[in-house]
Design goal:
200 residues; mainly alpha; Serine Threonine Protein Phosphatase 5, Tetratricopeptide repeat; 10 helices; 70% helix; 0% strand
Length: 200
Amino acid sequence: MDWRERYERAAARYAAGERRELDERQLVQLANAAWAAGLSLLMAGDREGAAEWLRQSAERYRESWDAGVAPDAWGRPIAAMKALLIAGEDATEPARWTLGAGAAEAESAIGRYAGVLALIVLGRDEEAATLAAELGDGFPGDVAAALGAVAARDAEAYGSALTEVRKSFDTRAAFLEDLPVADTALALDALAARRRLIRS
């Protein structure tokens, strides 16, 4: 995989997108392009450049939400938190936004997932563990287990769960922006490292 080429393509999409009307849909496309640019640079070994793009991605996801999004578009706050976590940045602001939007009480599993992630970011681990256990059969069990292990600060359980998360990634056929990077595992590792469950 030529990650530099992937980066150039994503950066070009972002630059072209900025010249269009920045409505809700276009803001999401910009966020996705910035996400792809950041992850491509990360995979190419440029952590500083990656962090800059991932921060931009998080900002664009928030802008798209504020532009008038449907109340159940939980993928956007999830992506914003994950982008900042992977960048090694503070994800407190999007976590607060996510909970303020009602994620922890959402009817959908994806909404409650956003809530669990936000609670863990904010250090509210006991609440996060309870909510993670309630994600249900419609949500990937490996991710729920990893979230629960992070919240419980259980290094052994986390290691086992993350192995399954990575295995499930290896069997996927579709990826955001056609970018085969295990972003969920990267974000989980960032949370686990802050709790000294793994080495950063």
